[in-house]
């Protein structure tokens, strides 16, 4: 009988071992999922913000705890959490262990009282800083969709600069460029137009620097090619003072206030919006923007530059300097019409029919290409249903490739487009 009793215990232990090991494996899988989720959460935070070792510990523990509450192993697993960070390669290793009590192996002192479960994961986080220009169409046709644009922009902001991010710790800076017939540059309008601006509006430049990001005060060797007025201030219809261009910043409150102030009005000079979006990303313009808004160098290996260009319409405005105009005029002395030409000095605003091949659209695409040539990734968003419209074609051409062009047919699709782009930017700097 004693022998049978011993054999019975052994048989039970052997049969139950499978149950104990199965429980351990099951707990390990659940812990692995919880640790992976916590690691990804932490990687996202590390990608957008600079974090101390203590902050990493806190955030990792909180994220892990939220995912293992149902396991009943919280305290032990969390207390055993360890991590190592490789900042040069953007890698974080995380591991933890926990002892799972045995029900059968420990019977009669035959096996261990606990099975130790080890879990480890490794994730990449971004080593990169990000500069993003948000070029937004606020023309009259956006009258009934400004609130949608605001919601979409705020969603993007929440992803790239999460609530609670200290501006000094953020790895992401965003500029906002609301445009219509021009861009509001505030007091800087006088600077970039060499005093010619009558208000705060600026338009575009002409001459050999037209499709470059040369400094605003660039003057060619042949000064007859451009007057001392570097940029045009020739429109009185541009976004209001509350929509003054916002250069690069990580301050969420500043960006949120700028988004809240968006309003509609004016015609569409998309080339002007693109140009000024580019200038907020260009290292050649550091002498105009505040020091903490100065763009980084193009060849900075730890910096990624992006632009999002959004429009719901077709370009229909452009500006020229010292334009030669020709036409038939009546000569009262000769009592007959004569064809003559003259130079209209100063900056002139030109309205034109909406077309893919018109002057404003042609200029916009040239600026987009020049920006892409500098390594800036461009996302183009057309908000409308007409796939063959000039606006849709322009945004498709401006985009870096097919994967960075979006056509939003509805308000929900516009919000979704901004959200998808924010996630794409995240995935790009996580994968690099």
What is the chain-wise order of helices and strands?
HHHEEEEHEEHEEHHEEEHEHEH
Number of domains: 2
Question: What best-fitting shape do the alpha-carbon axes yield?
Answer: elongated
β-strand percent reads: 15-25%
Helix run count: 10
Pfam families: Tad
Protein name: Pilus assembly protein TadG
Domain VWFA: 131-425
Organism: Roseibium aggregatum
Notes on the structure:
With 432 residues, the protein is an alpha/beta fold. It folds into two domains: 2-124; 129-319 and 349-431, von Willebrand factor, type A domain (Rossmann fold). Helix content is 36%, strand content 24%. It is built from ten helices and 13 strands. The strands form four sheets. A six-stranded mixed β-sheet has the order 8-5-4-9-12-13, sandwiched between helices. The chain has a three-stranded antiparallel β-sheet with strand order 1-2-3. A two-stranded antiparallel sheet has the order 6-7. α9 links the parallel β12 (377-383) and β13. It is elongated and about 125 Å long. Residues 4-10 have low confidence and may be disordered.
């Amino acid at each position: 009988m004693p022998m049978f009793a011993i054999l019975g215990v052994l048989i039970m232990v052997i049969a139950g071992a499978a149950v104990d090991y199965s429980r351990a494996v099951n707990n390990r899988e659940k812990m692995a999922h919880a640790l992976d989720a916590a690691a990804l959460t932490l990687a996202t935070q590390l990608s957008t913000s600079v974090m101390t070792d203590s902050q990493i510990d806190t955030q990792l523990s909180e994220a892990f705890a939220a995912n293992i509450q149902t396991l009943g192993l919280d305290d032990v697993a969390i207390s055993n959490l360890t991590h190592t960070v490789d900042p040069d390669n953007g890698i974080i290793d995380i591991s933890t262990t926990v002892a799972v009590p045995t029900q059968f192996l420990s019977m009669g002192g035959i096996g261990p009282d606990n099975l130790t479960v080890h879990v480890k994961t490794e994730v990449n986080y971004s080593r990169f800083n990000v500069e993003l220009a948000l070029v937004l169409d606020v023309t009259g046709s956006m009258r009934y969709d400004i609130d949608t644009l605001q919601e979409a922009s705020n969603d993007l902001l929440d992803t790239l600069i999460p609530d609670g991010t200290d501006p000094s710790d953020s790895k992401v800076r965003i500029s906002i460029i609301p445009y219509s017939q021009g861009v509001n540059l505030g007091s800087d309008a006088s600077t970039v137009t060499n005093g010619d601006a009558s208000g705060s509006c600026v338009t575009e430049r002409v001459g050999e620097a037209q499709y470059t990001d040369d400094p605003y005060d660039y003057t060619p060797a042949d000064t007859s090619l451009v007057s001392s007025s570097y940029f045009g201030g020739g429109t009185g219809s541009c976004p209001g003072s509350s929509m003054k261009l916002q250069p690069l910043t990580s301050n969420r409150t500043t960006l949120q206030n700028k988004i809240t102030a968006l309003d509609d009005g004016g015609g569409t000079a998309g080339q002007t919006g693109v140009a000024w979006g580019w200038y907020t990303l260009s290292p050649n313009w550091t002498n105009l923007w505040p020091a903490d808004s100065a763009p980084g160098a193009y060849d900075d290996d730890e910096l990624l530059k992006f632009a999002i260009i959004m429009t719901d319409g077709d370009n229909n405005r452009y500006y020229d300097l010292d334009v030669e105009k020709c036409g038939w005029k009546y000569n009262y002395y000769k009592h007959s019409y004569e064809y003559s030409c003259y130079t209209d000095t100063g900056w002139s605003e030109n309205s034109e029919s909406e077309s893919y091949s018109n002057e404003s659209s042609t200029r916009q695409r040239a600026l987009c290409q020049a920006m892409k040539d500098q390594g800036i990734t461009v996302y183009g968003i057309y908000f409308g249903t007409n796939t063959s419209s000039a606006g849709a074609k322009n945004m498709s051409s401006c985009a870096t490739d097919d994967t960075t062009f979006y056509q939003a047919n509805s308000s929900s699709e516009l919000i979704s487009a901004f959200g998808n782009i924010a996630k794409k930017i995240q995935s790009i700097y996580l994968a690099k």
